[in-house]
Amino acid sequence: MEQQIQQPKKRIFSGIQPTGNLTLGNYIGALRNFSLLQDEYDCLYSIVDMHAITVRQNPAELRKACLRTMSIFIASGLDPKKNIIYFQSQVPQHAELAWILNCFTYMGELQRMTQFKDKSAKHADNINAGLFTYPVLMAADILLYQTDLVPIGSDQKQHLELSRDIAERFNGVYGDVFTVPDGYFPKVGARVMSLQEPTRKMSKSDPEETYIAILDKPEVIRRKMRRAVTDCDNTVVFDPENKPGVSNLMSILSALSGMSMEAISAEYDGKGYGKFKDAVADSVIAALEPIQKRYDEISADKAYLQEVLSDGAERASALAHRTMLKVRKKIGYAPFKL
Ligand code: TYM
After folding, report:
1. What is the separation of C-alpha 210 from the centre of its chain, rounded to a whole number of angstroms?
2. SS3 (DSSP) at 98
3. How far is the CA of 31 from the centre of ligand 1 (A)?
4. How many CB atoms lie under 10 A from the CB of residue 55?
């Protein structure tokens, strides 16, 4: 009888920064895909607290935000038994590999990163070296686990491409050390825009009324949606260039309901923006309410969170250790045992 050889599952890595409130953009662009992919892949999902400190943080707040983010991961449907869910800072190999990869990354490459330019403008009083080398730490996160696929929103695409370049450069010198990762982007909603300035990305570091937080209550979601900036055409047509506000709301509705842009136009065009905005709010509430219910239970259960975090750090460390043994040997560090 022919024996079926089971292929090992492909590996996924992704991370979210535990800063501020996670937004609808984080949900549609990344988090929602995490749970959709968890059965087919071998996944690590990290709360990337090391990235968070590139911007000044209040320590007590950061600790709370880390646990809040972990609770949201689980509440969104990620099963900690199937996936490795962990805090980045609890696996020091991220920092170790980042240092090594820094020596394989050019200043010019980092200077071209648009997020560095944006963040330097936003935090002009604290343009630290960490902010500059942030994409190298991100490459280390991904390459440390021999990742095949990285589910992210489109704002992280440039960073992912740099990770690929660094992996290929390193492999070019030392042989096949790292898996070269691919990105995984949602078909609709890879870039959810601000509700108040729809030509800018929805961001958790912007003022409250510009984004919907995953934990926003239904009445808050309805209010923010009603106030979302649109235009005076009164047409529900997908045209991101000329109608960025309406197109953004259509993307949100399409991503959450599965309706095509044509179906949305057919249903809501000519009926006034009020009705359309209410429909978008309904779809957001329907997606977020069950997460919020589970969040309340999970975040109150400290013993459970403790178990998840210890288990996650241990399993992630074991995988990280394997890659680092190989990397250390390749670059010529002395072994622990001669
Ligand atoms: P972060 O924390 O800014 O965002 C987390 C994830 O959410 C996506 N995202 C969005 N998607 C669509 N529309 C939006 N408005 C929107 N805002 C955010 C992001 O693309 C991201 O997927 N550098 C990363 C974190 C990170 C990481 C990694 C990701 C560190 N190491 C390794 C993947 C792999 C960041 O700051 O994401």
Report:
1. 19
2. helix
3. 9
4. 16
Q: Please give the radius of gyration of the chain, using alpha carbons only, rounded to the nearest integer.
A: 21
- The first and second tokens of residue 316, run together, are 């992630």
Alpha-carbon span 51 to 85, nearest angstrom: 16
Q: Is 192 left (phi over 0), alpha (psi -120 to 50) or beta?
A: beta
With the CA atoms of 189, 194, 197 and 198 taken in that order, what torsion angle do they form, in degrees rounded to the nearest 10?
Answer: 10
The answer, as to whether pTM is greater than 0.90, is yes
- Give the Å distance between the CA of 313 and the centre of ligand 1: 21
Residues near ligand 1 (Cβ within 6 A): 13-17, 25-26, 28-30, 48, 51, 138, 141-142, 150, 152-153, 155-156, 190-192, 201-202
With tokens 């179906």, the residue in question is: 263
Kindly report the protein residue whose alpha carbon is nearest to atom 5 of ligand 1.
16
What tens-digit pLDDT sequence spans the chain (338 residues)? 556 677 889 999 999 999 989 999 999 999 999 999 999 999 999 999 999 999 999 999 999 999 999 999 999 999 999 999 999 999 999 999 999 999 999 999 999 999 999 999 988 999 999 999 999 999 999 999 999 999 999 999 999 999 999 999 999 999 999 999 999 999 999 999 999 999 999 999 899 999 999 999 999 999 999 999 999 999 999 999 999 999 999 999 999 999 999 999 999 999 999 999 999 999 999 999 999 999 999 999 999 999 999 999 999 999 999 999 999 999 999 998 88
**CA end-to-end distance (rounded Å), the chain:** 47
Q: Name the DSSP class of 192.
A: P
Q: What is the DSSP string of 102-137?
A: HTTS-HHHHHT-HHHHHHHHHTTT---HHHHHHHHH
CA of 290 to the centre of ligand 1 (A): 23
85: tokens are 């869910």
Tokens read off for 326: 């190989």
* 42-47 vs 11-16, strand pairing mode: parallel
Return the SS3 of 64: helix
